[in-house]
């Protein structure tokens, strides 16, 4: 069997809060969902802009990860940014900006946790990875808090036939001081690694010491295979999204790396895991039940 969620540490189940709230606000492409811990009223907590893949306007397909982030003590803003085919691609990033602005106003006026705008991160998957990178580039000029951490996962800004392309911002404008992870999955047959590489290379203001290009590797050693395909970062619940129930790729890969990236950006801890440059601590993916190590992450500064 693959390893279960670790008891503690990044990706682990040592949660600060036991329950969360999930609330949606607004309508159309500037709607958003807030996922927040219960019991954190009036506390200033870090914020994650979480940008979904194409069409997943509701948070359900990612809900286990979003709840994990919230239970660790983070406010998650989940912008809709599109209404499928009725929203033009050039509007995706501006819609996300507006949703984030509205969400921050709502958070300040509500009775729950309050946003700490000095501790902000952006995480994006697939099309959302492209939007997250755009937000990191234009946040300062768009009137939203600038992310101190950026994680993009299997990003793409094109339709499957390549005919529709979402504009990318000037990625050199992602400011120095941002900590970055550019992730790609080895079994992704849906999108190429072209944009993952581009985001890593074109964020020229970020020194190599502050970013890593990371490949999540599949492992079929055990009877329950760990398949790092395009959808591996989705983490729903077994009752409704059984294909995307969280597994070791989440616990030791996406969740662990994100937790460590946030800790590194906000408290200057866990850098050996977040940006270890290929250290064993960073690449470790746990152990199969027979004692065999799960296939480790590949980490490089030369994603060619």
UniProtKB/TrEMBL annotation:
Keywords: Hydrolase
Residues passing through the membrane, by range: none
Top-level taxon of the source organism: Bacteria
One example GO MF annotation: hydrolase activity
The keyword Methyltransferase appears for this protein: no
InterPro entries for the chain: AB_hydrolase_fold, Chlorophyllase-like
PANTHER family associated with the record: CARBOXYLESTERASE TYPE B DOMAIN-CONTAINING PROTEIN (PTHR33428:SF14), CHLOROPHYLLASE-2, CHLOROPLASTIC (PTHR33428)
Name this protein carries in UniProt: Alpha/beta hydrolase family protein
Species, as recorded: Hydrocarboniphaga daqingensis
């Amino acid at each position: 069997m693959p390893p279960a969620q670790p008891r503690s540490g990044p990706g682990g189940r040592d949660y600060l809060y036991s329950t969360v709230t999930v609330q949606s606000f607004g309508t159309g492409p500037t709607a958003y969902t807030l996922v927040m811990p219960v019991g954190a009223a009036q506390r200033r907590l870090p914020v994650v802009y979480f940008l979904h893949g194409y069409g997943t306007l509701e948070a359900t397909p990612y809900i286990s990860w979003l709840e994990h982030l919230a239970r660790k003590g983070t406010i998650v803003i989940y912008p809709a940014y599109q209404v499928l085919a009725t929203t033009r691609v050039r509007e995706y990033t501006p819609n996300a900006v507006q949703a984030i602005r509205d969400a921050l106003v709502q958070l300040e006026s509500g009775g729950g946790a309050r946003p700490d705008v000095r501790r902000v991160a952006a995480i994006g998957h697939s099309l959302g990875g492209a939007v997250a990178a755009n937000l990191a580039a234009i946040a300062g000029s768009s009137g939203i808090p600038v992310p101190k951490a950026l994680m993009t996962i299997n990003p793409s800004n094109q339709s499957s036939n390549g005919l529709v392309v979402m504009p990318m911002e000037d990625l050199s404008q992602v400011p120095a001081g941002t900590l970055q992870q550019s992730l790609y999955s080895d079994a992704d047959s849906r999108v190429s690694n072209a944009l993952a590489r581009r985001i890593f290379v074109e964020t020229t203001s970020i020194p190599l010491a502050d970013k890593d290009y990371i490949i999540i590797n599949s492992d079929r050693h055990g009877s329950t295979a760990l398949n790092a395909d395009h959808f591996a970062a989705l983490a729903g619940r077994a009752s409704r999204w059984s294909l995307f129930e969280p597994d070791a790729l989440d616990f030791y890969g996406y969740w662990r790396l994100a937790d460590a990236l946030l800790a590194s950006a906000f408290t200057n801890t866990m850098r050996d895991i977040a940006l270890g440059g290929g250290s064993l601590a960073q690449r470790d993916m746990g152990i199969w039940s027979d004692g065999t190590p799960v296939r480790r992450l590949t980490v490089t500064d030369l994603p060619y």
